[in-house]
Amino acid sequence: MRAGKLDRTISIETLTQTVDEYGGVVDAWAPMATLRAQIIEASTDEFQRAYGAGGETAIVFRTRYLDGVTLDARVMYGGEAHNIISIKEIGRRRGLELRVRRLGD
Q1: C-alpha distances in Å from residue 54, one per residue of 7, 12, 43, 44
Q2: Entry pTM
Q3: Which range of residues forms the domain containing residue 33?
Q4: Within a 10 A sphere around the Cβ of 94, how many other Cβ atoms?
């Protein structure tokens, strides 16, 4: 994986539980790591949904390997949160390919 192709910055966040000022437990997103990444594919697919036509933005990021990334995590890119749809390991812990979908799509 060539460093020159990793021209984007993404942040991987995990869901954690914290205690608020009233002593209640609340879910919050905490940063796990900030990584350099390459966009392999970015597409907007339009399709029919039950309530009408809609669009879905999917992006595939390629980045260096990071242990502990699961489908429960999310990717922050361009100020927007993206759900991780699939994770593919490249080589033997050489890198990761993350397929994500923008939240709300």
Answers
A1: 30, 27, 14, 10
A2: 0.76
A3: 3-102
A4: 10
DSSP-assigned states of every residue in 36-75: EEEEEEEEEEEEEETTEEEEEEEEEEEEE--TT--TT-EE
Residues 25, 90 contacting (CB under 8 angstroms): no
Collect all residues with Cβ–Cβ distance below 8 Å to 50 and sequence separation of at least 6.
Answer: none
Q: CA 25, CA 89: separation in Å to the nearest integer?
A: 34
Q: What is the amino acid identity at position 96? A: L
pLDDT greater than 90 at residue 83? yes
CB contact at 8 A, 82 and 56: no
Tell me the CATH number at 20.
2.40.10.270
Q: How many structural domains compose the chain? A: 1
